[in-house]
C-alpha cells in the first residue's frame, strides 16, 4: 500500500470490503422477436449475474439504499436485448424515464471527434432546461458517422417520444460500442422500444447489463438518501466504463437521478462541480473516448422549497450528496479497468487550491510507471514523486513526505532507508483483487485537497484491447 502524508499528519488507510453478494435475478423470453427482459426488484440484485465492483461511498450524513437509478421519486428504468450486439444476446438497450419534467444537466467528452448522441444532447440541453427520458444503447458508438449518424439519433428520439407521448427534445440519447458504426435504428425502433415501454409501465426493470458494450464492462449502480433542508431526498445513479478512461471525461456513460427540488442554473453548476470531483478524476489508460456522457435529472418530487442559490446551506447539502454518489460510482469504474487487479486512490493535501491538488492527483494516478509498479508489487515510491513533479503544479520538493504502508520512505524531501523485503511482502498481501492502493501526497502548507482514482496496468489490458473488434 502506497501512502504519503504531511509531516504532522498520519492518515489511517482502510482496505475496502470485497464484492457484495445478492440474489440472482430472473430472465424470461418474450414472444416479440425473442427479446429478453431481465427483471429485478432493485439494481443490487443483479450482482451475481453481472460481476459487481465494490462501492466505496464516502463517509457523510447519508446512507446507502437500494434502487440505483430508480431510487429517487418519479424515475423508472428498463433494459432489454434488442439485437444491437454483433454477437451474443446480452441486453443492449436501456431506458430511464421520469414521470414529470425533470431539471436536466449534462457533462460530455471533450474529444473533438464527439459522437452523434453527444452532439445531439448538447444541442437539446442548450435549448431546454428539462427532460423526461434517456435512451441508452450498446453495440454501436455512432461516432464518426457524419450527418447520417446524427439523423439516426433524431429518429430514435422521435420514436421514443411518440411512445411516451412527450416532445422529442425531452428525450436524451447515450451510445456505446465500436466507433464508426451507426446505430441499428431498425432494431431500436418497434418492437424493441415497445417492449421497453411496456416494461416501464409494468414496473421498474433492471437496465444494468444493457449498458454493457461488446466486451464485458463494469456497470455500477448506487443510491443514497440524505437530508437537504427539511426534506429527505434520494440520489441514485448508474454508470458504465472500463477502458479508454481518462479525465475530460473519463470514458463512460452515466445517468444520475434525484428527487431534490432545485432550479436549473444551480443544478447544472452542481453537476459540473460533482463531475470534476469524480468522473473527471478517474483514469485507466490515458485515452479519452468519443462518447462520454453523464446525464443528471432532478424530478423535484421530494422538495418543498426550490434550491435557488449555489451558496445556500441546502445547496451545500445536496452538493455533498451528489459528490458522494458520483465519487462512489467513479471509484468502482476505475476499480475494474480492463485487466486491472486493484484500485489506485491518490489523495493530495497541502496544495494551494482544490484544482491544484486534483491535477497532481490525476498526474500520479495516470502514470503508466506507477500503474506498472503497482501491478508488479514493486515498492518504487520514486515514481510517485516523479509523477507529482511533472504535474505542472509547482511545489517545494523539500516538503514532500512519502510513506509505503507504515514505513516512512521520504521525509522533507530526503529518502530514508527501508527493508524492501518487508515492504514487498506487505504490499503483495494487500494488492489482491478488489484491494485498495492509497497514495497520499503532502506538498506544502496550503488548504487545497483533491483525489483521483485509477487502476494498475496489466498484461491483460493489451490483450483485451488488441482484440476489441475481433
From TrEMBL:
It comes from the Eukaryota. Pfam families: ArgJ (PF01960). GO terms for cellular component: chloroplast. The active site is at residue 251. CDD domains: OAT. Its EC number is 2.3.1.35, 2.3.1.1. It catalyses: N(2)-acetyl-L-ornithine + L-glutamate = N-acetyl-L-glutamate + L-ornithine; L-glutamate + acetyl-CoA = N-acetyl-L-glutamate + CoA + H(+). The record marks 176-177 as: Involved in the stabilization of negative charge on the oxyanion by the formation of the oxyanion hole. Gene3D superfamilies: ArgJ beta chain, C-terminal domain, L-amino peptidase D-ALA esterase/amidase. It is an enzyme of class 2 (transferase). The keyword Protein biosynthesis does not apply. The record marks 250-251 as: Cleavage. It is found in: Plastid, Chloroplast. One of its GO terms (molecular function) is L-glutamate N-acetyltransferase activity, acting on acetyl-L-ornithine as donor. One of its GO terms (biological process) is ornithine biosynthetic process. Pathway: Amino-acid biosynthesis; L-arginine biosynthesis; N(2)-acetyl-L-ornithine from L-glutamate: step 1/4; Amino-acid biosynthesis; L-arginine biosynthesis; L-ornithine and N-acetyl-L-glutamate from L-glutamate and N(2)-acetyl-L-ornithine (cyclic): step 1/1. Keywords: Acyltransferase, Amino-acid biosynthesis, Arginine biosynthesis, Autocatalytic cleavage, Chloroplast, Multifunctional enzyme, Plastid, Transferase. Substrate binds at residues 240, 251, 338, 465, 470. Belongs to the ArgJ family. Heterotetramer of two alpha and two beta chains. PANTHER family: ARGININE BIOSYNTHESIS BIFUNCTIONAL PROTEIN ARGJ, ARGININE BIOSYNTHESIS BIFUNCTIONAL PROTEIN ARGJ, MITOCHONDRIAL. Catalyzes two activities which are involved in the cyclic version of arginine biosynthesis: the synthesis of acetylglutamate from glutamate and acetyl-CoA, and of ornithine by transacetylation between acetylornithine and glutamate. This is Arginine biosynthesis bifunctional protein ArgJ, chloroplastic.
Amino acid at each position: 500500500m502506497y501512502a504519503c502524508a504531511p509531516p504532522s499528519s498520519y492518515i489511517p488507510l482502510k482496505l475496502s470490503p470485497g464484492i457484495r453478494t445478492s440474489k440472482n435475478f430472473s430472465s424470461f423470453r418474450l414472444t416479440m422477436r425473442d427479446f429478453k427482459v431481465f427483471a429485478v426488484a432493485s439494481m443490487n440484485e443483479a450482482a451475481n449475474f453481472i460481476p459487481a465492483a465494490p462501492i466505496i461511498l464516502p463517509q457523510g450524513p447519508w446512507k446507502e439504499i437500494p434502487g440505483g437509478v430508480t431510487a429517487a421519486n418519479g424515475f423508472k428504468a428498463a433494459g432489454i436485448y434488442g439485437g444491437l450486439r454483433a454477437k451474443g444476446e446480452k441486453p443492449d438497450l436501456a431506458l430511464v424515464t421520469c414521470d414529470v419534467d425533470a431539471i436536466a444537466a449534462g457533462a460530455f467528452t471533450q474529444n473533438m471527434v464527439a459522437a452523434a448522441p453527444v452532439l445531439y444532447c448538447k444541442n437539446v440541453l442548450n435549448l431546454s432546461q428539462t427532460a423526461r427520458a434517456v435512451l441508452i444503447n450498446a453495440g454501436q458508438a455512432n461516432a464518426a458517422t457524419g450527418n447520417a449518424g446524427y439523423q439516426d439519433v433524431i429518429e430514435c428520439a422521435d420514436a421514443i417520444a411518440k411512445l411516451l407521448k412527450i416532445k422529442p427534445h425531452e428525450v436524451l440519447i447515450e451510445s456505446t460500442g465500436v466507433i464508426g458504426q451507426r446505430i441499428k435504428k431498425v432494431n431500436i425502433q418497434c418492437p424493441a422500444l415497445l417492449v421497453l415501454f411496456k416494461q416501464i409501465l409494468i414496473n421498474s426493470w433492471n437496465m444494468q447489463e444493457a449498458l454493457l458494450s461488446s466486451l464485458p464492462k463494469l456497470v455500477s449502480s448506487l443510491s443514497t438518501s440524505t437530508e437537504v433542508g427539511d426534506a429527505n431526498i434520494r440520489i441514485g445513479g448508474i454508470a458504465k466504463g472500463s477502458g479508454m478512461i481518462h479525465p475530460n471525461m473519463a470514458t463512460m456513460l452515466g445517468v444520475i437521478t434525484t428527487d431534490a427540488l432545485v432550479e436549473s442554473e444551480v443544478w447544472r453548476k452542481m453537476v459540473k462541480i460533482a463531475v470534476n470531483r469524480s468522473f473527471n478524476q478517474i483514469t485507466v489508460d490515458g485515452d479519452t473516448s468519443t462518447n462520454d456522457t453523464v446525464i443528471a435529472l432532478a424530478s423535484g418530487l421530494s422538495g418543498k422549497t426550490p434550491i435557488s442559490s449555489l451558496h445556500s446551506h441546502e445547496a451545500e447539502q445536496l452538493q455533498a450528496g451528489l459528490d458522494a454518489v458520483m465519487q462512489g460510482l467513479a471509484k468502482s469504474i476505475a476499480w475494474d479497468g480492463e485487466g486491472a487487479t486493484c484500485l489506485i486512490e491518490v489523495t493530495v493535501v497541502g496544495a494551494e487550491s482544490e484544482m491544484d491538488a486534483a491535477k497532481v492527483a490525476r498526474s500520479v494516478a495516470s502514470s503508466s510507471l506507477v500503474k506498472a509498479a503497482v501491478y508488479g508489487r514493486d515498492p518504487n515510491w520514486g515514481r510517485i514523486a516523479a509523477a507529482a513533479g511533472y504535474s505542472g503544479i509547482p511545489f517545494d520538493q523539500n516538503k514532500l513526505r512519502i510513506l509505503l504502508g507504515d514505513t516512512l520512505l521520504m521525509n522533507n524531501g530526503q529518502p530514508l532507508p527501508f527493508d524492501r523485503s518487508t515492504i514487498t511482502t506487505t504490499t503483495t498481501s494487500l494488492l489482491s483483487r478488489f484491494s485498495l492502493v492509497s497514495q497520499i501526497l503532502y506538498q506544502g502548507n496550503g488548504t487545497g485537497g483533491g483525489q483521483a482514482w485509477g487502476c494498475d496496468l496489466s498484461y491483460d489490458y493489451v490483450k483485451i484491447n488488441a482484440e476489441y473488434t475481433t
